[in-house]
């Protein structure tokens, strides 16, 4: 099929929920993709932070293929070694005590919300069920996780939203003002990705954790985008020095297959008892086989050190470019405030010139594969610099 035939088939088949770029990708290796006509693209987006090991990684592909040829699905009515081995490895690496596996970041956040509310009701009474989130946050696209999202732009059309959410600015005074006796949890992103790559202030995070502990309120960290090596530590909380009671993970965890994980501390492991939650495809053996490969490799100290080094290199190059007003973020989760033009126009021009890049509000956003090479980075940076220089 030609690229035009594929685009026509796509547009005639799907609900028009996505604004696609004009690129038809058919293959890839690490951070280099290829379209129908053989044109190459450098990938600075990794499928919105999903392809942590890049395209067609040999170890990941082999692990998935072996499992697919053995047992592709069982449901959670039975035990299987792939899911049990992965869960144990994830807990060992993360320092948590129990995990629930689903299929996406939104599902992981739904589980965290249910866990927090059940814990609040059981410990304090049925009114202890409100969750406080931060303005400018993003937690998913289900009706409940949209309600948890602290951005008005997402609060249209789909009423009534799930009740029980309140919002605070990312400072302790605002949190204190909006926290009530009915607050069971505070949910944060250490770096607000969809909100414009906005890292939380470390002092605020420490004060927030202390306040939550003082009031018996759970601290939930949405690490869907910041987790699994993205910021230079396996989970971002390690760099803030504040371990959440509940942590959610997805995106890069599966290496390209759908997964969501809700992790909790030992004190909370029994909250979600039998029949309180479930997922038909959660803990799928094929997905878990791929995720195990990701976790074992990304958690290695030398791998994480390389992510930090690559992130520092990208930042230093970006800060020297004409057309860049500001660079913010951590590790290989970076946002560029353009000095000229718009993120939408610049990202489209990047794709046209062979660079896949993301946006976040008014920013260009970089989430490259963690395995991207120096050569691939330099090729992508050259394209970006060309686009920024031509902008006006």
Automatic annotation (TrEMBL):
Q: Which residues bind pyridoxal 5'-phosphate?
A: 105-106, 138, 222-225, 280
Is Cell inner membrane a UniProt keyword of this protein? no
Molecular function in Gene Ontology: identical protein binding; N2-acetyl-L-ornithine:2-oxoglutarate 5-aminotransferase activity; pyridoxal phosphate binding
User: Which note does the record give on the cofactor?
Assistant: Binds 1 pyridoxal phosphate per subunit.
Q: What is its main location?
A: cytoplasm
Query: Which cofactors go with this protein?
Result: pyridoxal 5'-phosphate
Q: Where in the cell? A: Cytoplasm
What's the EC number here? 2.6.1.11
The N6-(pyridoxal phosphate)lysine modification is found at: 251
UniProt subunit comment = Homodimer.
Q: Which HAMAP family match?
A: ArgD_aminotrans_3
- Family, per entry: Belongs to the class-III pyridoxal-phosphate-dependent aminotransferase family. ArgD subfamily.
Q: What else is known?
A: May also have succinyldiaminopimelate aminotransferase activity, thus carrying out the corresponding step in lysine biosynthesis.
What is the name of this protein?
Acetylornithine aminotransferase
Q: Which organism is it from?
A: Candidatus Caccousia stercoris
């Amino acid at each position: 099929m030609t690229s035009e035939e594929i685009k026509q088939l796509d547009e005639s088949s799907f609900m028009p929920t996505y604004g696609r770029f004009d690129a038809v990708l058919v293959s890839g290796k690490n951070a280099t993709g290829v379209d129908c006509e053989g044109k190459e693209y450098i990938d600075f987006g990794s499928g919105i932070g999903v392809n942590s090991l890049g395209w067609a990684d040999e170890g990941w592909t082999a692990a998935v293929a072996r499992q697919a040829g053995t047992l592709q699905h069982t449901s959670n009515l039975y035990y299987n070694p792939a899911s049990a081995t992965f869960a144990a490895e994830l807990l060992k690496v993360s320092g948590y005590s129990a995990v629930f596996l689903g299929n996406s970041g939104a599902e992981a956040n739904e589980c965290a919300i249910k866990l927090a509310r059940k814990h609040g009701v059981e410990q304090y009474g049925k009114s202890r069920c409100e969750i406080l989130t931060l303005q400018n946050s993003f937690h998913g696209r289900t009706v409940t996780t949209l309600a948890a999202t602290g951005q008005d732009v997402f609060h249209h059309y789909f009423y009534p939203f799930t009740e029980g959410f309140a919002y605070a600015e990312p400072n302790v005074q605002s949190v204190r003002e909006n926290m009530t006796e009915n607050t069971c949890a505070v949910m944060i992103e250490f770096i607000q990705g969809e909100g414009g790559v906005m890292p939380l202030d470390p002092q605020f995070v420490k004060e927030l954790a202390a306040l939550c502990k003082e009031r018996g309120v759970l601290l939930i960290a949405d690490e869907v985008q910041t987790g699994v090596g993205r910021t230079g530590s396996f989970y971002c909380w390690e760099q803030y020095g504040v371990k959440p009671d509940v942590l959610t993970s997805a995106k890069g965890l599966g290496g390209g297959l759908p997964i969501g994980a809700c992790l909790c501390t030992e004190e909370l492991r029994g909250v979600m008892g039998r029949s309180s939650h479930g997922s038909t495809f959660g803990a799928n053996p094929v997905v878990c086989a791929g995720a195990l490969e990701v976790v074992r490799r990304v958690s290695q100290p030398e791998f994480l050190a390389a992510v930090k080094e690559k992130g520092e290199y990208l930042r230093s190059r970006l800060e020297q470019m004409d057309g860049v007003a500001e660079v913010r973020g951590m590790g290989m989760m970076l946002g560029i405030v353009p000095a000229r033009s718009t993120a939408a126009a610049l990202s489209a021009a990047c794709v046209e010139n062979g660079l896949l890049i993301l946006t976040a509000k008014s920013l260009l956003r970089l989430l490259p594969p963690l395995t991207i090479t120096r050569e691939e980075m330099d090729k992508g940076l050259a394209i970006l610099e060309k686009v920024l220089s031509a902008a006006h």
